[in-house]
Structures are given as C-alpha cells and as structure tokens.
Design a protein that fits this description.
This protein is mainly α. Strand 3 and strand 4 form a beta hairpin.
Length: 357
C-alpha cells in the first residue's frame, strides 16, 4: 500500500489529473453549474459533467494503459485489452451511477415544480372563487333609498342655500367598492398557496364599536321616549362622526354635495346634511348595511342596538338644533369623513348662536 502511494506521489500525470479535476470542480461551484432546474435534463450542465468527466478520465488514463500496444482483434486481444483497461473502464463506468443520481434529483425537482404549479393554480382558483362568492353576496345587499334627497318630481333636491348645486349626488346608499371591502375583511386572502381565509376580527370589532358609540349617544328617556340631553350638540356630533366613520368602514361612498355647520354657544360642528330626516335615513342605511355585512361574514345576526332602532322608527326626530344648520361649502368628496368633525370646534365668531342645553 505504501509503495502504491509513494508511486502515485512521484507520478506527475496523477498530479496533473488531480489539478485539472480540482479546477473543473472549482469552476462548477463558482459558476453554480451544479444547480439543477426544471428544464429538460439535456439542458442541465451537471448532467453533462457527470458523463464528461468520467469519459475524459477514461481516455486520459487509457492513454497510459494503451501506449505502445497495437490493437488485436481477437479473443486474446480483447482479453488483453480488458486486462490493461480495468482502471480506465472502472472510471468510465462511474458515469452511469453519477448520471443516474443527477437524473433522479432532476426528476424530483421537476415533480416538485409540477406540484408547486398545481398548488399555485389551485390557490389562484380558490382565491378567485372565494372573492367572487363574497362579491356576489355583497351585491345582493339592497341599496337604501334616501327619500329626503328627492323633490316632488323624483329628482335630487336643489340646495336652498346655493341653487347652483343639488343636495346630493344620488339618492341611494350602497356598498360602492365591494373589492376593497373584501380586502378589509379578508386581508390574508391572496393568490399565494399560504393564503388564509379567516375574516379579520378587528373589522367586526370596529363595526360593533362604532354602533355602540352611536347607540350610547341615542339613549332615550323611558318616560317620554325622547333623547336624553335633547339639544346636545356634542351628542349629535358623536352620532354624525361615527355614522360617517361606519359608512367609510363599509366602503360606502358619500352622497352629499354640501357641508353644513351647526353652532351652539361657542362650539360648532359640521355634518353632511341640514335635514334631520335625511340624517336619520343615512343612519338607517349605515345601521342595516353593517348588520347585513356582519351576518355575511360571521353567519350569525349581530346584536340589536335598541336606541338606534328606537331613534329611527319609534319617535319623531329629536335633534332640534338641526334648524340652526347653515351651509359651509358646496363640495363633493367620496369620503364621508370630509363632511364631519371628530370633536367640536371653538367657533370663530358670527353665524347662528343657538344656546346649548
């Protein structure tokens, strides 16, 4: 064994071969030719190296084995050829298992790619089907007619403060952008394989929170069924702001074409109408739309908000300060929040001066 090793060390041809092999392997690693793709096997560089290196090694070592010997086409010649070519043939034979290993790995990559492609297609189909089903159900939620927006001829009323403008862009309230609403409710629903279709619980919580705030500000007296703090500007502002926020939350575009200012004492607010009946109808649309979306998402009825339903159906409108509303601007924005104030502002002076009770 030691004699063999000593012989190898002293043989320059072995060193030359090993050096060439190291250089080839280094280039393969540097160029990343060892990476297999899903393309045809004959396009894989590693496959050709698995055949080419043993073949060239066979020829290289064969030259030394065959040097000085003439080919003899006889049984004895074949036997002699096999005898002197065992080592080169052994190296050549290594191409079979090497190529087979590369082929098996390549087949695995192709299979994985096919599975990924199939899963990706299924993920896209699943997403589109889920989105389509949701959109169709949303479109089944009826529009709410705002009767107070219509004149006697069925058209949109003219703004009494500014005859060049109507009071609203349309007389219906409905979910304007169901695709946006879908993404808000199912934020993790995508065309990716890892997509999740659990609804956003925070969306439901916000819906209920907004309705709770509105409900609290519409608390009524059990004795005469009137609003507590009957002329409260702050309560009206809360109801106005959270109604607008709820409609914005539900992807319902604004219909008003004017901002109205209501002042009481030294405080003022702004809202989307100067007509409490129209205000009530918009609140009704927001309330019922939110409950229908809640049922669509959760599959159960939402809580009933008694003060809201009582204000809408059981009594006469109670915010008398609507009579003090004045036009601030005739504008249009698709956002309801452009028409309301989150908190009461200190009035700058002038304008109506209704006392806040």
């Amino acid at each position: 064994m030691m004699i063999l090793l000593t012989s190898i060390i002293k043989t320059p041809a072995i060193w030359l071969y090993l050096l060439a092999l190291v250089i080839i392997i280094s280039i393969i690693i540097w160029k990343k030719w060892y990476i297999l793709s899903k393309e045809n096997l004959f396009q894989q560089k590693l496959f050709w190296f698995s055949i080419g290196i043993p073949l060239l090694s066979f020829i290289y070592f064969g030259v030394f084995a065959w040097s000085g010997k003439a080919p003899v086409l006889s049984a004895h010649g074949y036997s002699r050829f096999y005898e002197i070519s065992k080592f080169p043939l052994l190296i050549l034979a290594s191409s079979v298992p090497l190529a087979s290993i590369v082929n098996n790995i390549h087949r695995t990559i192709q299979t994985e790619s096919q599975i990924n492609t199939s899963e990706s297609k299924n993920a896209i189909d699943r997403y589109l089907a889920h989105e389509k089903n949701f959109i169709e159900k949303i479109k089944d939620i009826p529009s709410f007619n705002i009767i107070e927006a219509n004149d006697s001829n069925g058209g949109i009323k003219t703004n009494i403060y500014d005859p060049n403008y109507k009071i609203a862009i349309k007389d219906k309230i409905n979910i304007s952008n169901p695709y946006h609403l879908y993404k808000k409710i199912y934020p993790e629903a995508t065309m990716e394989v890892e997509a999740k279709y659990d609804h956003n619980e925070d969306f439901i919580k916000k819906t209920e929170d907004y309705l709770n705030i509105i409900n609290e500000n519409l608390e009524r007296s059990e004795i005469n069924n009137t609003l507590l703090a009957r002329l409260s500007l702050s309560k009206l502002n809360e109801v106005s702001y959270y109604t607008a926020l709820l409609l914005e939350h539900l992807c319902v575009e604004n219909i008003s074409l004017a901002i109205y200012k209501i002042r009481s004492g030294n405080k003022e607010m702004k809202t989307f109408t100067d007509n409490e009946y129209m205000f009530l109808e918009i609140l009704e649309a927001a309330y019922h739309t939110s409950r229908k979306v809640f049922f669509l998402v959760k599959g159960i009825e939402s809580s009933k908000f008694e003060n809201i339903t009582s204000y809408i159906y059981d009594s006469e409108p109670s915010f008398d300060i609507f009579k003090d509303a004045k036009l601030q601007n005739s504008i249009y924005s698709p956002s309801w929040l452009a028409y309301v104030t989150k908190e009461l502002h200190v009035a700058k002076g002038g304008g109506n001066m209704a006392a806040e009770h």
